[in-house]
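pasting for the record
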Amino acid sequence: MLKKCLILIIGVLISGWHPSGVQAENSYRIVTVQHQTFQPYTLSLKGFRQGIQQSEAADKIIIDTFNADGDIAALDAFVASLETRQDVDLIFSIGTHSTQRTVREIKTIPIVFTDLGAPETSGVITDWQGSGANYTGVETRDYVGIGIHLLHELMAFQRIGMIYLKGSPSHEGTIQKVTELSHEAGFEFFNEGFSLRDENNQVLPKEEIRENITAALEKVAPKVDVFYVQISNAFDQNFDLFFDCFKKYSLPSTGEPIYITKGLVIGIGRDKEKFGLQCAEYALRILDGADPGRLPMDVGKDFSISLNIEAATVVGYNPSIDILGAADQIFREIEPTD
């Protein structure tokens, strides 16, 4: 009997058994999770898919996607269901909402994440060198602070402004970080928050959201000499309000590169498609046996600056030679909006 048990154990080891229960010669299943449709998330997923498809293991990997389309209850239910599934070998989590939930609820499946709006205050990262748990990710430490500090050197602004979504961990985290940076760097920081939901946690009507954005902009814009636009699906969908405000006050704008073709003057931030590629590299390493808890997370590459010449002209801003020289991409027109 003992001899048969030993033979069985040896046979299992030789067959390539992994802690996830997936044999090396079988296919792997990756599930991607995001809480809404958003351009940066789309770019991250595109890069991730490309990285997997270009790998030698591409024909062994199945990718399933889940998008909650803004339904947080549906996101919670789906994440809870993953913990009991036996067919998932890795989760690719995109965005703060999805990542907070997956790392909190999922303890037996490796997780790779990206697109944390404010990584330091998300509650996900406590040690950039490794989680010591079942997850890792591709991010840039204090990327908003890096961008604003660089812009302060290039533009020598004295007062910068932002509006933000109340209750958003990424937005409120960014406000906290920029407040600290303003004290260190010696510039003034003005900000105004508002909510997308009512007291019953129901999403406000579109027109009321637009009124709230306009009111917040009007409280901040007259006080500053440059405006920073945080990453937000709500801001993306209503960027015309921002652009109208910038034209009204002849105010140069900066912020996430996703707005550059909509009329932002200077985009500064992360190349999300390349971040997705890096996430694919991590996923492949983990499927090959690497411990996600030992993989560092402050590894985001390709921090870029873009400049929209037409947007600068519209608001009466003349970019300096330093800004022109620092720009990785230069756009010369604003795309028409619907």
